[in-house]
Recover the amino acids of this structure.
């Protein structure tokens, strides 16, 4: 996967912004090739520098379905792209820039360039002249648009501080076509008072709610409560009027019913995976859930 890391600095007193981008691209011999670009702009705001840096970077990246990850130290850019994620943009829809502010012109240019590339945007932090890439991706959408001949692989996790207490869920959804990874989506959420088991179920529900109707998906989770519940216990609970063999009511009934309803709209394969091991997707979902549980979703 091609990765681009954008860093921006702005000198307000001088009205000058500086940006740099490091692009790592895989080559035929599996060795990463690195390209570094830098630039400066005279401008009246930091936001314009971010937009100009992003536009210049995207102009150097390939169009089409190749998966690209772009990191930038600006939640302003990510929030703007997220709000526009489901809009359809083409050359004919680009404005003529008449009676529009420079910021609006720049945003429309960025929207268009972004729409022609398969980019996963990520947030990074900067310190000094070095940029540290955080291991997180801000989701572009919460509803994945339909795509022909696409199957999905999803990783889910839930977290709770105190159990019960503040909780979070995190999911990573990979879209595959013709044996190639086309796009990765990451989403997370927070609940003020919950339990770990409720967050585990919720994470699976969020995957199924995000997918196009009648999707084929394999869901990985390190929660045996979730995996065994949906594959072994659910049918027994339903036939027993949502009662355990002890005649006590099933806990989290409303979530299990919601999960069952959403599962019926897709072709789902459930797979348990060992937690905190070498599975990158599971570890990523774990981090998303833990960060969300702390009340921080800008991740």
């Amino acid at each position: 996967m091609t990765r681009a890391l954008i860093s921006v600095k702005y000198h307000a007193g001088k009205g000058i912004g500086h940006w740099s981008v490091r692009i790592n691209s895989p080559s035929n011999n599996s060795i990463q090739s690195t390209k570094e670009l830098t630039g400066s702009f005279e401008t009246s705001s930091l936001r314009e520098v971010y937009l100009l840096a992003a536009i210049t970077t995207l102009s150097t990246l390939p169009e089409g379905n190749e998966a690209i990850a772009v990191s930038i130290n600006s939640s302003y850019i990510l929030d703007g792209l997220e709000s526009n994620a489901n809009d359809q943009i083409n050359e004919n829809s680009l404005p003529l820039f008449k009676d529009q502010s420079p910021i609006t012109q720049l945003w429309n240019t960025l929207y268009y360039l972004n729409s022609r590339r398969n980019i996963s945007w990520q947030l990074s932090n900067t310190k000094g002249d070095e940029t540290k890439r955080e291991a997180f991706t801000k989701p572009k959408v919460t509803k994945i648009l339909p795509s022909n001949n696409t199957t999905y692989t999803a990783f889910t996790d839930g977290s709770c501080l105190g159990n019960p207490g503040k909780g979070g869920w995190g999911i990573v959804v990979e879209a595959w076509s013709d044996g190639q990874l086309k796009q990765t989506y990451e989403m997370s959420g927070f609940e003020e008072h919950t339990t770990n088991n409720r967050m585990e179920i919720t994470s699976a529900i969020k995957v199924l709610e995000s997918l196009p109707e009648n999707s084929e998906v394999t869901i990985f989770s390190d929660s045996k409560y979730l995996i065994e519940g949906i594959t072994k216990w659910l049918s027994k609970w339903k036939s027993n009027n949502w009662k355990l063999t002890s005649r006590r009511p099933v806990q989290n009934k409303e979530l299990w019913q919601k999960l069952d309803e959403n599962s019926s709209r897709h072709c789902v394969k459930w797979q348990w995976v060992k937690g905190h091991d070498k599975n990158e997707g599971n570890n990523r979902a774990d981090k998303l859930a833990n960060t969300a549980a702390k009340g921080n979703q800008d991740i």
